[in-house]
Every structure is written in structure tokens, then in C-alpha cells.
Amino acid sequence: MKNSVALFLMLAVAIWANGQPTDRRDTVPIVPRSSWEAQPAKPFKQHVPVQITVHHEGGKRLMSSADARQRLNNIQRWCMGPDRNWADIPYHLLIAADGTVYEGRNPLTVGETNTEYDPTGHLLICFLGNYNEQQLDEKLLQVLIDLLVDSCIKYGISPTAISTHRDHSQQTACPGEDIYAYFKSGYVVDEVKERMDN
To answer: Is residue 99 a contact partner of residue 143, using CB atoms and an 8 Å limit?
Structure first.
């Protein structure tokens, strides 16, 4: 059974890498890993994203004037170090407090989590900072929605497959009360649907 699943995932990755889905676009610029001096990732499981899960980092507050690149570097070093021994920074895309979106781990590599849910098939988008203690402004909310639209189109994901970390785990309040309120009300998914329909 495990071999069949592995073969399916390898075939799916190969198909996606050869141009499927074909209707791809990026309206949100994504700053490459090299900008934050990312260390090379260790080999890890491959997958094809079929849903999107939104997180917050949950550490200290991160203001828009803070050095997001240093924060990314610190997160990666800690996650790949002896405390976690993970393959890379755990998230695929990371949004800084000034709205800049940074490239994290390869989207075709399974993310990692310190909770009980299996992130296989999940594209992980993470806000840097702690959104139990800080708030999304209108700019950040629009960056998130635009990034979700881009990602749904790029990977052929339905907006109904967008959720948050706490929707998959009993062990966390991630992505923080402020971000979660926009998902609980249905606002984020409704906005993504509307933009994809236009």
C-alpha cells in the first residue's frame, strides 16, 4: 500500500512538473530563498498540494519595520537544528508584516508541523509574527487573498479547500485569533471564490 501511494505521488509530481495545471499566474511577487540566505534543504517527502492551510509563526510579534529576513533565517536554523531536526523551514510561503511574501520550502515537498495533523497535500502559507497579539491590516488581508487566488489557480485547488491550522488540529490556536476571525466568518474563502469567478 505504501509503495502504491509513493508511486502515485511520484507520478503526480512528474505530471505537475511537466506543465499541469497549465493555467498558472502569480500576481503577488515572491521573494526567493536566496534573499534570506536560506540553507539548502534536506531531502524530504514529495507531494502535490491539493489544499491550502494558513498558519502564523506564533513567536514574538513582528512589526513591519522588523528584519523579516533575519527572522526567516532564525526559524530555519532552529527547525533544522537539534530541537526539531526537520528538513527545512516548515512552510512553503511566508508573509512578513510589511506584506512581502517570501519563498520557503519547495511547494512539492511536504511541510512539517509540531501538531498531530499530517500536512501531506497541504500548501502551507504562514504569517510571520503572532496574530494573537497583533492584527492584520487591510494591506495584509489583501496580500493573503491575492496569494490564495494565485495558489488555487497554480495548483488547481478549489477555494473550498482553504483552511487554517486549527481546523486540522486540536493542539493549537494557530493562526491566531485575528487571522482566524476572517476564516470563521467565511470572508476569506468568499473573497477568493469571487475573484476566481471574475
So the answer is: yes
The one-character DSSP state at 67 is: -
- Residues with Cβ within 8 Å of residue 101, at least 6 apart in sequence: 28, 29, 30, 31, 93, 94, 95, 143, 147
C-alpha cell at 135: 492584527
With vertex at residue 143, the alpha carbon angle to CA 142 and CA 148, rounded to the nearest 5 degrees, is: 95
Are 121 and 51 in contact, with CB atoms under 8 Å apart? yes
Q: How would you label 79-118 residue by residue, b for 16+ Cβ within 10 Å and e otherwise?
A: bbeeeeebbbbbbbbbbbbebbbbbbbebbbbbbbeeebe
- Cα–chain center distance at 66: 21
- pLDDT class for 14, splitting at 50, 70, 90? very low
Let me know how long the chain is.
198
Grid coordinates belonging to 49 = 498540494
Reply yes or no on whether the pLDDT at 11 is more than 70: no
